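Example with several molecule types.
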Amino acid sequence: MAWARRILRVNLTEGTCKHEPLNMEWAMKYLGQRGLATKYLAEEIDPKVDPLSPDNKMIMATGPLTGTAASTAGRYSVITKGALTGAIACSNSGGFFGNEMKNAGYDMIIFEGRSPKPVYLMVQDDDARLMDASGYWGKSVWDTEEGIKAAHGDPQIRVASVGVSAEKGVLFACVVNDMHRAAGRSGVGTVMASKNLKAVAIRGTKGVNVDDYPAFAKAVTDGKAVLAENAVTGQGLPAFGTQVLMNVINEMGALPTRNHTSVQFEGAKDISAEAMAEPRRSDGKPNLVRNAACFGCTIACGRISTIDRTHFTVAERPQYHGASGGLEYEAAWALGAATGVNDLDALTFANFICNEQGFDPISFGATVGAAMEMYETGVLTKEQTGGLELNWGNAKALTDLAELTGRGEGFGAEIGLGSKRLCAKYGKPELSMSVKGQEFPAYDSRGIQGMGLTYATSNRGACHLRSYTVSSEVLGIPEKTDPLVTEGKAGLVRAFQDATAAVDSSGLCIFTTFAWTLEDIAPQVNAACEGDWSAEKLLEAGERTWNLERQFNIDAGFSGADDTLPSRLLKDAAKVGPAEGKVNGLDQMLPEYYEIRGWTADGVPSNETLSRLQL
Amino acid sequence: MKVTVKLYAMLGQYLPAGAKDNTVTLDAEADATPASLVARLGVPAEQCHLVLVNGVYVAPSERGARALADGDTLAIWPPVAGG
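Resulting structure tokens for the full complex:
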């Protein structure tokens, strides 16, 4: 059985750490990680709780396959009520922390209450204790991780921590592990900091068992062969990473540009995967140093980059001359196209700061884009921005704001509110490109219609990782659909949502699904876990999770009225490219989506649906 | 007629010398198609996964028949993904 069958419950108010058995009845219905932790959260907190109050809880959760030999099986998630959104939050991260947590013998760590002083949790297999973190409070993610490893004299400890941005209340702060892998969205790091919990440090040596080892070895070997032989997971992602999408999405007129005022960015070529591989003039070296893999991953899409040492951001700061986590597509879009900045080194520097101080580059870049639109239109003045000239394309303003936001200082503290609150504060709520308070990622739904429904119905606010219909509408995986039509998209979105929820509950990375279907994943889960885990049962667990998340949000105060998009996407047609003249046809997709979900016309899961899913 | 051809990711190696930003402008025959320009540049057809003309997808079965017009932009990628 791949579950550790054990939870660590940490009461930060009382300073206690207790072991308890995993609820296996729930595990058989929700599998693990996203689904199972959501079940625990929904059972244990009032959905109406203030996300930053001690009554909110935060769960770090692995899946049953986390820590096994399956490819990409190093994932963990942070589940809580999101600080940015007030909705259910589940942010998934790779790196090596999840594997270490599982090897220490835990399916989940549940944090409750609030510590009276800054602490970090130190776990060494069965031994778990809270330790004084006053020496780390006020320090960056990078310094905290290095400091804890040095203090314990063990470089093999894995650390997940929050940076200064979270301490200062930036609402889209992340939990960062392994220096530059992050549970990035919805402000899960802000919740962690609100509990005075600076870091979780783990060393695990217990190993992870599986139910049927010979069957598991075969299923894992078969699965790895599929990934290796697939041109996307075997060649495309390792060589060019996710950033290869920059020119694709721009070419098809779906690259949100300058706060969604356009759908094509003339500077896309300068911030693309191809640009990252070009030798630069100053030293003849490219931005991209190498690719990188998380624990157990045979895809290795990660980017490791350097900044040109003559660039204005680092010329006098040698501490940033080394190689570190480089730009992924969503970050490059938000820091670049959303703000009109086409300076690759500036974007890479801003990304480094997001990692160092622990905040989400998507929400950050998109919020800077909204601020720039307010500045360009005279809503914001130079006096209000603390002297920053927030004109479109101002690379210096972008990097200055990254540093200010990282420290929660000056106008950076206002950027840290996120675009919804910032735009409302200055009387322009319509300029926030967000759903349920969370900023869009890098696909304009006027040019990729299914993504409009994806964003509008995403349980954690606007997000591409809840149903990545780009796979079908753009890339032809598993089959090509027309991105400019609404027909068939309701069913497509539902299918992606349910399958994704299942993968997110397994311990695997969603990127495997560029090659794998649930038919490839089911034999691995089935061999590792007790019970009969067919693709159908995985899909059912995914649907159950989706509906549970929906119910949590309804109980938190959300309704069908929140399943919408900013008016800009519904009323202002795209001006160029294949989508010229088009808005998003959400009204044509949403009623059908509710119907095939088994929800009422108001978007509430019907009693029949709840009963069918045993909710 | 003039057709702008863009070859991305691993396909960039098939661009003529001097191409900038993964782009070259070709003098194309009046009956040029995506398939004929792919062949002319020596790009293996099986590596042409995503083919867009003016940003609109052209299915494999249509690549030999889709007539290109003066000023068109043909952009091609091998199998790639992101997210």
